[in-house]
Design a protein that fits this description.
Layout: H1 2-8, E1 12-16, H2 20-34, E2 39-43, H3 49-57, E3 66-71, H4 78-88, E4 95-101, H5 109-117, E5 119-122, H6 130-140, H7 147-157, H8 161-175, H9 182-188, H10 198-206, H11 209-222, H12 227-253, H13 258-265, H14 269-279, H15 284-304, H16 309-321, H17 324-328
Parallel strand pairs: 1-4, 1-5, 2-3, 3-4
């Protein structure tokens, strides 16, 4: 029975790309077809191409079909690929090979050899399609998340598909069928420190003083660092963000579009779009003054002021956020 199943499948599959969750699901389907008793899991980190060929030619414990999974085959050298290419000219009829690679060029020798003998399954997700990919994952687990929530999750977690998939499952379990919005994503997702500041920067970009103060306090409370460490760090992140917004404003004045600016500034396309939008809410003079004010704040937090650090921080946030008419009043 197992041998019959193996013969119905291709002798080799190459699963490659950034969508590791989809690759994992494809492997689970192959494992289910063969049966766990016939599965052998190996890694190119530990075995050579010759070792992989030997594993593919080995007889199963009960003489049935086998699935040999070899991860990280992008590590193989030319000699390893040569051994595997030779094997694929006359593969074992009782064995299905599943070669898994992170990144492998479509014109590589291994890709070409697999394409002749079996199937190449490329699972890639372009960065600009990440919110759509997140939406698909929510749908797959039976959850409801709006477009803004999907984009927020990408900004908060980053572009690691494994981490995004994990957060999707966590949010779906918590929601239990209820709709998931930006608020739920912000409150429940464990974002990376470099990206989880976006709630604060979004509020600053809207020039929403109450929201800025609330977001800053929430960020400080959620941090596992002492406030004396987190405050200067938060100021540094704000300075970097304001600097990016200034750069986007300059590029916008030159007629450059956000998607073109993203590559030049090494920013995520969504972050570039948001920075361009925020730049419209400030004059060039205001952005320059904000950088200066934040530099003064950094000095104050490092011993340059007799006021309490929290008070210095709040005063500076208000000054760099409020609108000109509020300042005049």
């Amino acid at each position: 029975m197992l041998g019959t199943v193996a013969n119905e499948l291709k002798p080799v599959y190459l699963l490659t790309g950034s969508d590791r969750p989809k690759i994992a699901r494809a492997l689970r389907r192959l494992r289910a077809r063969i049966g766990e008793d016939g599965v052998e899991q190996l890694s190119a980190r530990e075995i050579s191409g010759a070792d992989a060929v030997a594993a593919a030619n080995a007889m199963g414990l009960f003489g049935g079909g086998r699935l040999v999974i070899i991860d990280e085959v992008e590590r193989w050298k030319a000699a390893d690929v040569k051994d595997m290419t030779a094997y694929l000219t006359s593969p074992s009829p009782e064995t299905v090979l599943a070669l898994v690679a992170g990144e492998l060029k479509s014109d590589s020798a291994l890709t070409k050899a697999v394409a002749k003998a079996g199937d190449v399954l490329a699972y890639d997700v372009p960065k600009k399609k990440l919110p759509e990919w997140v939406a698909e994952q929510f749908t797959r687990v039976g959850a409801k998340a709006d477009r803004d929530a999907c984009r927020a999750l990408v900004e908060l977690v980053g572009d690691s598909l494994d981490e995004l998939a994990s957060e999707v499952e966590k949010l779906a379990t918590w929601a239990n069928g209820a709709p998931i919005g930006v608020r739920e994503v912000e409150e429940l997702s464990a974002g990376r420190a470099e990206t989880s500041i976006f709630t604060l920067t979004d509020a600053w970009g809207r020039r929403d003083v109450p929201a800025v103060l609330t977001a800053a306090e929430s960020r400080l409370e959620r941090s596992d660092r002492p406030r004396s460490v987190e405050l200067p760090r938060l100021v540094g992140l704000l300075v970097n963000h304001v600097g990016r917004v200034r750069a986007c404003q300059i590029l916008a004045d030159e007629g450059i579009r956000p998607r073109d600016a993203a590559g030049r500034l090494k920013m995520h396309p969504f972050a570039a779009e948001k920075a361009f939008a925020q730049a419209q809410n400030f004059s060039a003079t205001e952005l320059g003054a904000a950088v200066v004010r934040l530099a003064r704040l950094d000095h104050a937090l490092k011993g340059g002021s007799r006021l309490a650090p929290d008070l210095e921080f709040e005063r500076a946030l208000v000054e760099v956020t409020k609108r000109p008419e509020a300042k005049a009043a």
